[in-house]
Amino acid sequence: MKKICIILLLAVFCYSAQAQDNYQKYLWLTKSLSNESITNVEAETSGGNIELKGVDADARIEVYIQGSNSSDGKLSKEEITARLERDYDLNISTADHKLTAIARHKKNSNSWKHGLSISFRIYVPHQSSSHVVTSGGNISIGNLSGTEDFTTSGGNLMIDQVSGHIKGVTSGGNVSLSNSHDNIDLSTSGGNVVAKNSKGNINLSTSGGNVGLADLQGNITATTSGGNVEAKTIAGELQASTSGGNVGLLDLSCSLDASTSGGNIKVEIIAPGKYVKLKNAGGNIDLQIPENKGYNLKLYAEKLEIPHISNFSGTGSNKRMEGTMNGGGIPVTVDAGDGKVFLTFK
How many helices (H) and strands (E) does the chain have? Predict the structure, then answer.
């Protein structure tokens, strides 16, 4: 799992660095915001990327424009100006501590073959809130502590060092979250989700990709309809589910509710929370828990493979076990359906 997270994050960072290098030659406009005391940002573009970053000084917006077709090459300033005036409404303005940056294709224009990709880089005070939309580009947000609401139809979401109320949606891209906290809700319809070194109320979901988690704390919900869920070093409370993939959870210090309908589940808990609940419709469940805790055990499977349990009181067979261990305590409910349950102690 750790390798998966690192590879995905490196891919995102390499993409960002490459994009930054390529962007510079397409710089169209720079507008200073240093005297505007910006607290709110509304940004929208039909095909480009949007990067929003909190800064201590030199607040500004940079507009980057290039041809949306690879055959265009690097357009001249005259050609960009002509296409802008003919096909686009571009509004870069400020009023009442709000920055508005909107690039829209004119309704009466049909020159899609000669379209433009218009991207924004926005640098504003750290406490700024935002509403950001792009139809196909990536969204990157960092170093902010407001209310951030952002959507892209197909690009990636990259969130780093953001706190407050964070809600982001992409219809097909990947999601990367790091070094953030408070209320976080991120979803993608088809990409992968990677989250690390963050805390708070965190809700992460994908309809088809994998989910990789590392060093998270708080109330964590991670769901995928078809991929795998893998996590390491989680504290607080974790709900993890997939409709068809595997679940691998290591170094947990949390309450846990995990399930899959078709894959296998492997869980290693070093400090259990208030409960442990694992459910699998057909695959196996491998659970490791500390030996010196008190548990209320309810274990069900086609076959149970469990070592001798000291201080156990209850009933059991090779398919079903119910009772208490070490006088009882934390409820541990494991149901593998037609699969096997392997229970070990450490």
Answer: 2, 26
What is the pLDDT at residue 177? Answer: 98
The CA distance from 305 to 343, in Å, is 7
CATH code of the domain containing 191: 2.160.20
Report the domain count for the chain: 1
pLDDT of res. 318 = 93
Rounded Cα distance, 192 and 187, in Å: 9
| 293 in any annotated domain | no
Residue type, 89: D
The answer to whether residues 232 and 213 touch, using CB atoms and an 8 Å cutoff, is: yes
How many angstroms separate the CA atoms of 57 and 1, rounded? 39
Give me the DSSP letters along 33-90. -TTT---EEEEEESSS-EEEEE-SS--EEEEEEEESSGGG-S--HHHHHHHHHHHEEE
226, part of any domain: yes
CB 194 within 8 A of CB 174: yes
CA distance 194 to 206: 11
Containing 247, the helix (H) or strand (E) segment is strand 247-260
User: Residues of the chain whose pLDDT is less than 70?
Assistant: 1-23, 70-73, 109-113
Residue 137 is assigned to a structural domain of this protein: yes
Torsion sign (Cα): 109, 114, 115, 121: negative
User: Token pair 């397409």 is at which residue?
Assistant: 26
Q: pTM here?
A: 0.90
